[in-house]
Design a protein that fits this description.
mainly alpha
Length: 92
């Protein structure tokens, strides 16, 4: 494995941990009626590569599951990111 592939793997792991964590923190804030993490931030984390973690967080924490945009958008992002990751892995 070359350095660029290692960086790609490390980025994927870290951004998905962040995606999962952000969904969990927002759910906790919602339950406590605290100031929430904006949906824009949730989307931004998912778009920059954290879609798998954010989707897993959505399912594990049962957060944003009734919002159509999240229920449809996150799985579509997961598919797109998986295809991109496989393509990058094959071509780097």
């Amino acid at each position: 494995m070359d350095a660029l592939t290692g960086i790609l793997y490390l980025y994927a792991v870290i951004i998905n941990i962040i995606g999962f964590t952000v969904m969990g923190r927002d759910k906790r804030k919602a339950e406590r009626h605290e100031y929430r993490i904006s949906e824009r931030v949730l989307w931004q984390v998912a778009i920059v590569g954290g879609s798998v973690g954010a989707y897993m967080g959505m399912k594990v924490f049962r957060h944003k599951t009734k919002h159509k945009a999240f229920a449809v958008g996150f799985p579509l992002l997961v598919i797109a990111h998986c295809v991109l990751f496989i393509w990058l892995n094959a071509n780097l």
